[in-house]
Amino acid sequence: xxxxxxxxxxxxxxxxxxxxxxxxxxxxxxxxxxxxxxxxxxxxxxxxxxxxxxxxxxxxxxxxxxxxxxxxxxxxxxxxxxxxxxxxxxxxxxxxxxxxxxxxxxxxxxxxxxxxxxxxxxxxxxxxxxxxxxxxxxxxxxxxxxxxxxxxxxxxxxxxxxxxxxxxxxxxxxxxxxxxxxxxxxxxxxxxxxxxxxxxxxxxxxxxxxxxxxxxxxxxxxxxxxxxxxxxxxxxxxxxxxxxxxxxxxxxxxxxxxxxxxxxxxxxxxxxxxxxxxxxxxxxxxxxxxxxxxxxxxxxxxxxxxxxxxxxxxxxxxxxxxxxxxxxxxxxxxxxxxxxxxxxxxxxxxxxxxxxxxxxxxxxxxxxxxxxxxxxxxxxxxxxxxxxxxxxxxxxxxxxxxxxxxxxxxxxxxxxxxxxxxxxxxxxxxxxxxxxxxxxxxxxxxxxxxxxxxxxxxxxxxxxxxxxxxxx
Length: 472
Known about the structure:
- With 472 residues, the chain is an alpha/beta fold.
- The protein is 20% helix and 34% strand.
- The chain contains ten helices and 27 strands.
- An eight-stranded parallel beta sheet has the order 20-19-18-17-14-11-10-21.
- Strand 12 and strand 13 (154-157) form a beta hairpin.
- Helix 2 runs parallel beside helix 3, helix 8 (342-354) packs parallel to helix 9 (370-376) and helix 8 (342-354) packs parallel to helix 10 (379-385).
- It is globular.
């Protein structure tokens, strides 16, 4: 499959923010403005409310009143000047109104990472240009933990992380928000080989109210508050909370402590959210999973697509169904060579982007191929993922057991987007009639295809084709 080349460091500035940002009233805010274009370039923002400033392209501060303001982001370089409108909503418990984009460790390294590797990865995201497309989080998955102790009687880090606060400070200085991992289970998944086990946010005897929970169950003694206080002291901004089955009661207990902490956290629940608790996830959680861990193979990718139908009625701005971190590029499971074709990588990425899912890279950033970098840095597919309407795609043709399946979603500016996922088929011509003639743009190739009342594709198997439609 051919995809357009990236332009991270050439040409006139392109501002890659979503159309909306959210901030919790009275709490600290940090956001690195993603802008591509020839360097050096400058970024400024007009219309900022009192309490916020933009220095070096990093928006930070806090606002002590509820408000909704229209900002103008301005980027300038030797090639020209670009402006973009951005709506900022400041309100209680408001964060991540569009899907999270960033990096996480698990598929990349399993437990083979440390504090230095986290900072190095953040620097690689900037030097490669990836960060300038909106990838703004650097998240630690399991493997950081040791035992209980310290000032807060909370989980303390192992020797690989001698200065958690220093690591968070370094990530913040680069403009990234920092994430951490935990679980309500007595024993966390992802234990480093040098340790016999690592703890979660509960201790003591198993609580009989949760007899089906894995890894020894959930303890009767609750230490969510102590652990949240410790994460706040270190400066974390995101929590992946991981257990199975993923129930609404434990999700709510952690959410309560996060809300009372005085610090804004983007909050993710994994790994198998219970459908009977859907209302809790849709209200209190920024993203939730109901799928197996991602792996770099076709069967895993196709099985993940089959889960998108279950949660279509619960996605809204700030609350997203999570298709899990990516497994493209060099990662722990494919050290000896890529197990996916380029088309399958495009399929895996498109699935997250089109379905309003968080997009978390989990790979050796410095080993990404040019093709993979072009794929990760396509601002047009990212704009669909980050569209402020958060309209969940509807199936309009085909099914998961057919040669191909087609989805459509509406976009905030009145356009629509259509995605054709090709499954276990041979190369075939696909003709998709439209309700009325539209101006059609191929998003992956960044090419205008003209006005038509149908989409015509010569489709390869295990791939994805995305089109933006504007009424003619």
